[in-house]
């Protein structure tokens, strides 16, 4: 039997900590969920769907998710400018986790 001793471990070195560092933030999971549900989404569509998020926060969160290779940004050279966002293959690998969260929420929702 392999015993873990907390005094010999460090949370920062775990896969959990790494994953959390990528998705941590008020809206990152919501953005990932939106892209999972709708595939390719434009900036204003996402802002409208999410609701209370500011333009600045959405923009910053998308840039961070893009830098972490979870989200792909496609810019089309036209007037007016058109930009679409979608999940990368790396981002799509989070779908089972997002699906699990959705299933848990459906099963454990407390209706008031």
TrEMBL record:
Family matches, as InterPro entries: HTH_HxlR (IPR002577), WH-like_DNA-bd_sf (IPR036388), WH_DNA-bd_sf (IPR036390)
Pfam families: HxlR
Any GO MF annotation of the entry: DNA binding
Domain HTH hxlR-type residue range list: 10-112
Keywords: DNA-binding, Transcription, Transcription regulation
Protein name as annotated: Transcriptional regulator
Protein species of origin: Sporofaciens musculi
